[in-house]
Design goal:
With about 200 residues, the protein is an all-alpha fold. The protein contains 7 helices and no strands. The protein is about 70% helix and about 0% strand. Helix 1 runs antiparallel to helix 2 and helix 1 packs parallel to helix 3.
Length: about 200
């Protein structure tokens, strides 16, 4: 929309075609980065996941829908190749991770120049992610452990509490907080190292 002075309002400026193309290209890149990390961690059976850091990275540099799409695509591929088909539902976790990462990025917390806020954001992402993880585990997998890396933690809590719910929640808390903290820091560092011309999203001041 043009003003009387002939200037173009910022809201009326269309995204350049190259911007959209790069966003689309980044979706499989996010999926591939998550996949490589996820497969390595799965082989080593580490008590972490590390398969959402590229979702976070993509969200920061390219926008919410790009991060969410790339993360969900990763889970679909992982379900067909490593985890088994029922595991595709974990794609909703990557969508949640993209949303909450975008929220923290918008308020300026996903920033390597603000380490305290970055650390707090990572912890909060991990803590809040326990809720959707537990919900999916309960509704789809009957609260049974689904990952070998956290199975020993689940078994130890189950033995001491005799509660599958507490075992699921407890093992999620122990794994999710350090996992999402490390993932968010990694995503923020990688994003900060990218030249501005390759950063698709507009960073908040």
């Amino acid at each position: 929309m043009s003003t009387e002075t002939g200037k173009v309002e910022p809201a009326a400026v269309a995204k350049p075609t190259g911007f959209v193309i790069l966003q689309i290209v980044l979706i499989p890149v996010i999926a591939a980065l998550n996949y490589v990390t996820g497969v390595i961690v799965n082989i080593l059976k580490l008590p972490l996941f590390m398969d959402t850091w590229a979702t976070m990275f993509g969200t920061v540099v390219a926008g919410l829908w790009v991060g969410a799409a790339g993360g969900f695509l990763y889970n679909i591929v992982m379900a067909f190749t490593v985890w088994g088909l029922p595991a595709w539902v974990w794609g909703f976790i990557n969508i949640y991770i993209a949303i909450i990462t975008w929220v923290f990025w918008r308020i300026g917390w996903v920033n390597v120049k603000k380490p305290v806020k970055l650390l707090l954001a990572g912890i909060l992402v991990g803590v809040t992610n326990v809720v959707p993880v537990t919900a999916i585990s309960w509704l789809v997998f009957g609260l049974l452990p689904t990952y070998a890396g956290t199975a020993p933690i689940y078994a130890a809590i189950l033995a001491s509490t005799n509660s599958m719910l507490w075992a699921s929640v407890g093992s999620s808390i122990i794994a999710e907080i350090p996992d999402k903290l490390i993932s968010l820091i990694l995503a923020a560092v990688v994003a900060s190292r990218m030249p501005a011309r390759f950063t698709l999203g507009q960073r908040p001041s």
